[in-house]
Design brief:
The chain folds into two domains: about 290 residues, Glycosidases (TIM Barrel, Alpha-Beta Barrel), CATH 3.20.20.80; about 130 residues, Jelly Rolls (Sandwich). About 25% of the residues lie in helices and about 25% in strands. The protein has twelve helices and 17 strands. The chain has an eight-stranded parallel sheet, with helices on both faces. Strands 11, 12, 13, 14, 15, 16 and 17 form a seven-stranded antiparallel sheet that branches. Strand 4, helix 8 and strand 5 form a beta-alpha-beta unit. Helix 5 runs parallel beside helix 6 and helix 7 packs parallel to helix 8. The radius of gyration is 24 Å and the shape is globular.
Length: about 500
């Protein structure tokens, strides 16, 4: 969870007082920088965006009348009486998320059908009109309370498209209606870490297409929940990746050009890849469902994504300068289905095994093609010292260089984890991971952007020396994390389980 101290440290780093913080991180080795740190390459992430990056993966919970009508998109004419979970347990949802490594849950407080999972005073299309808990229930309350109990973040989704509300299409009137409901969510449920908007839009009963007042929506979030990151197709905090498959592109820049971009009408190529010349830090989120549909359907109980598929999604989302937003829909009982829970546990177990131990432990011998100021403060050991607040950096103007690490004996690896020190901006545009074989450097893997985190898989590679080759960058690279792992084969791991 976020703290004011953490925010102060991050903001201090961003505003340029870098040497003091970095010096404290290196104090155990009595290192002191005499060469100034690299100048930031803008745009830079805000503290709430850094909090978002750190989460890595979080869980979407799609739940509404659709769960009981077997629909994906409701039409707004559903009788609230159909909403009647028999054993709703928000603690089971949140505890499952916590136990399997998810850092936040986002609840669909209102989907396109307009049915509210809280007793909104602005419509009668809510849980208050349902038989669940005799109309006295509040799903949003139960989920937010469970998040506080288990110590993970809480986010809300409020569909701007409302197929039930009569004033939808009367743009000024509906915008006020929507702001009223948004204010209820932002002010009645404690700290909210993410507010998730989509661009779904349609015509109202008057035949007119609704025009959303996005600026006023975002202003409400900033007023009531200043620490919350805002998701929409084009940001301003986090953007959509342009697909619902869970895959970001390569390159994947956190920068995005939001000039002349309308929410719901952004270019898919920029969503998927970002923009090296973008004017704002708006990283991509990868949203995908663990099942074919977003809401629970009994017919899909045996179509939960395989462990192999989930890991591939993870590599291409959390492992590709994005975060994974994995939807796990509660069923008609109001529980996460056993098949979904079992797969989540397998996924968590595999990740814990795959990323342990790190073969690049502190103390190994490193060399670089260039070190900033030729100082130990910036040398290659900073990338393998288990401290993401220190980094290997090159001199200004040196945008291609290399870092080698020599093992004490021969090692086999198949996964690399890389991070840039993005508090100074995203820089790397092309890299290779190489291994020394019979005196020759051979490419094990390659890619374009790194950003906050890049996890790249390669064939089993055995060597006693590895090299990270930065081939191109926007400015001198700053590599804060370089790790290698030897992950087990997924099929063998599953069979062993």
């Amino acid at each position: 969870m976020k703290t004011e101290i953490r925010r102060f440290i991050i903001q201090t780093l961003i505003t340029g007082v870098l040497s003091t913080i970095s010096g404290a991180a290196a104090a155990s080795e009595n290192l002191q920088a005499h060469t100034p740190p690299p100048e930031p390459v803008r745009p830079l992430p805000k503290p709430r965006q850094l909090d978002w990056h750190e989460r890595g993966r979080y869980m979407f919970l799609h739940f509404t009348v659709n769960t009981f009508t077997d629909m994906e998109w409701g039409n707004g004419k559903e009788d609230p009486q159909v909403f009647n979970p028999t054993s709703l347990d928000a603690r089971q949802w949140v505890k499952t998320a916590k136990d399997t490594g998810f850092e936040m849950v986002i609840l669909t407080c209102k989907h396109h059908d307009g049915f509210c999972l809280w007793p909104s005073k602005y419509t009668d299309h809510t849980v208050a009109g349902s038989p669940w808990k005799n109309g006295e229930g509040d799903v949003v309350r139960e989920v937010s309370d469970a998040c506080r109990e288990f110590g993970i973040d809480f986010g809300v989704y409020l569909s701007p498209w409302d197929r039930h509300e009569p004033c939808y299409g009367d743009s000024p009137k509906y915008n006020q209606f929507y702001r009223n409901q948004l204010t209820e969510l932002l002010t009645n449920y404690g700290e909210i870490s993410m507010v998730w908007f989509d661009g779904a839009c349609g015509e109202g009963p008057n035949g007119k297409r609704q025009v959303y007042d996005w600026d006023s929506y975002f202003a409400l979030v900033r007023k009531h929940q200043p620490g919350a990151v805002i998701f929409s197709d084009a940001g301003p905090g986090v953007r959509w990746v342009g697909n619902e498959a869970g895959y970001a592109g390569d390159p994947n820049w956190a920068m995005y050009d939001i000039r002349n971009i309308e929410i719901g009408g952004g270019r898919r190529d920029q969503m998927t890849h970002g923009n090296i010349n973008g004017n704002k830090w708006v990283p991509a989120e990868c949203d995908v469902s663990i099942r074919p549909g977003w809401f629970y359907h009994k017919s899909e109980d045996d179509e939960v994504k395989s462990l192999e598929k989930l890991f591939d999604i993870y590599l291409n989302s959390t492992g590709n300068n994005s975060c994974l937003n994995l939807n796990v829909p509660p069923d008609r009982r109001g529980l996460l289905h056993e098949n979904d829970v079992q797969r989540l546990r397998e996924f968590s177990d595999y990740l814990n095994t795959a990323f342990n131990p790190n073969l690049l432990k502190p103390g190994l011998t490193t060399e670089t093609g260039n070190t900033r100021g030729n100082e130990a403060f910036y040398n290659g050991t900073r990338a393998i010292d288990d401290d993401p607040m220190t980094y290997w950096a090159t001199d200004d103007g040196v945008t291609n260089s290399w870092l080698t690490v020599e093992f004490e004996d021969t090692k086999t690896f198949n996964i690399a984890v890389l991070r840039e020190y993005v508090r100074l901006g995203q820089r790397v545009a092309e890299f290779e991971l190489q291994a020394l074989n019979n005196g020759q450097w051979e490419t094990a893997a390659s890619g374009h952007t790194i950003g906050f985190q890049r996890i790249i898989k390669c064939p089993d590679t055995t060597t006693d020396k590895v090299r990270l080759l930065i081939k191109n960058a926007r400015a001198c690279p700053t590599i804060s994390v370089f790790e290698l792992y030897n992950a087990p084969d997924i099929k063998e791991f599953t069979n062993a389980e």
